[in-house]
Design brief:
UPF0213_domain; 4 strands; disordered C terminus; alpha+beta; GIY-YIG_endonuc; four-stranded antiparallel sheet; globular; about 25% strand; GIY-YIG_endonuc_sf; 4 helices; GIY-YIG endonuclease; GIY-YIG domain-containing protein
């Protein structure tokens, strides 16, 4: 089996300066967050810059990540905030705030 077939994918939430949460997927969440911060990421951050990678969830495939991203995007903001809070309480290694 090739490395690409076993490489994990990630669903992540990034907090913008205005408090909004952006949900996306990537095969490297840290690299993608750096792209969002540098202006090479989503247009979402043109009006309010990315300030913190607040949630990362590991999934087994790109398809799984896309399905989870869709589910998260359909959640109310309070449910997304609960995900962030639960992860920061249980697994602070995956949460990284950039100052």
């Amino acid at each position: 089996m090739s490395t690409a077939a076993t490489k994990p994918w990630f669903v992540y939430l990034v907090r913008a300066a205005n408090g909004s949460l952006y949900c996306g997927i990537s095969d490297d969440a840290q690299r993608r967050f750096a792209a969002h911060q540098s202006g090479r990421g989503a247009r979402f951050f043109h009006s309010s810059p990315a300030v913190a990678l607040v949630y990362v969830e590991t999934l087994g495939s790109k398809g799984d990540a896309l399905r989870r991203e869709r589910a998260i995007k359909q959640m109310k903001k309070s449910a997304k905030e609960a995900l962030v809070s639960a992860q920061s309480d249980s697994d602070p290694v995956n949460v990284q705030a950039i100052s």
